[in-house]
């Protein structure tokens, strides 16, 4: 087993005398070559968990083992096994992406550093035009991709990526997912920390949904979806906010965010839903709509959001 997390709890001091339970009895395991998505809202406790895996923070209770070795007993080993792309941008200063990535590659791999890997990564991510530009002149997306390359130029057996696609354009996001998937070909395991549930669904083997420090559910994307399955969703692009009283009675639940309204229904109500959505288009309240089976995002919203309204 690459990673075994057993009953990990981490409590921080809150305001005054209060306590903040950042991780609450978390258990999770990972096998070689697996990509596990750690999904959760802001403040859910994802980074606290990652910091404990790499030995930067010590659990108050429970234990974390990497390849059978306790992280708290051997933090140096933990850091040699793990490569991390942090959520915050890496300050590159005057260094170019090529310089920054090759420095890290040489530090991590020593004599085994292979400069061809840098060329392969830059090519795969279409980074050629930025490779020799000073870091501080680069866009946020180019810096994010540079930080990704720094994490994977000489990857440890466990690569931890914290929001790697933030600021990255949609085309290069696709390239990035391909590179992440290729990492696992030689047995590297990947923890992907993200808010972007839909993207994660395509990239991961398993997901763990974390909320208020607890893992609410974990399993393959299909297993997690099954908690809301046998349902369909209609997604509407609203031209004006829809008041609750206009949500149709066949809705099992709905979620409205900006101009996006997602309504879930049982399959027998699909015809009603399409007819209703068509009427809304004619009335001018909805620009367009699409009907799909429920996604992992639906499960995520249902499990973590306080704003889901479930009809009686
Ligand atoms: N060193 C610390 N001292 C006190 N509280 C902390 C500390 N680190 C984290 N926290 C708190 O623990 C909780 C979990 O934080 P954490 O950074 O792990 O969440 P997260 O899921 O990574 O969030 P985000 O997606 O916003 O990065 C938050 O309420 C945070 O304020």
Task: Provide key terms for this protein.
disordered C terminus, 10 helices, Alpha-Beta Plaits, globular, 312 residues, 2 domains, binds adenosine-5'-triphosphate, six-stranded mixed beta sheet, alpha/beta, Rossmann fold
- The best one-word shape is globular
Helical fraction: 25-40%
What is Rg?
22 Å
Arrangement of strands in the largest sheet: 6-7-8-3-9-10
Write down the secondary-structure element order. Answer: EEEHEEHEHHHEHEHEEHEEEHEHE
The tally of structural domains comes to: 2
Give the helix tally.
10
| CATH class bucket of the largest domain | Alpha Beta
Total number of beta strands: 15
Structural class: alpha/beta
Label the CATH architecture of the largest domain: 3-Layer(aba) Sandwich
Identify low-pLDDT runs: 307-312
Q: Give me the CATH fold name of the largest domain.
A: Rossmann fold
Q: What hetero molecules are in the model? A: adenosine-5'-triphosphate
> Could you state the CATH homologous superfamily of the largest domain?
P-loop containing nucleotide triphosphate hydrolases
Specify the biggest β-sheet.
6 strands, mixed
Report mean pLDDT, rounded to a whole number: 90
Tell me the span between the first and last alpha carbons: 44 Å
Task: Provide the β-strand percentage band.
Answer: 25-35%
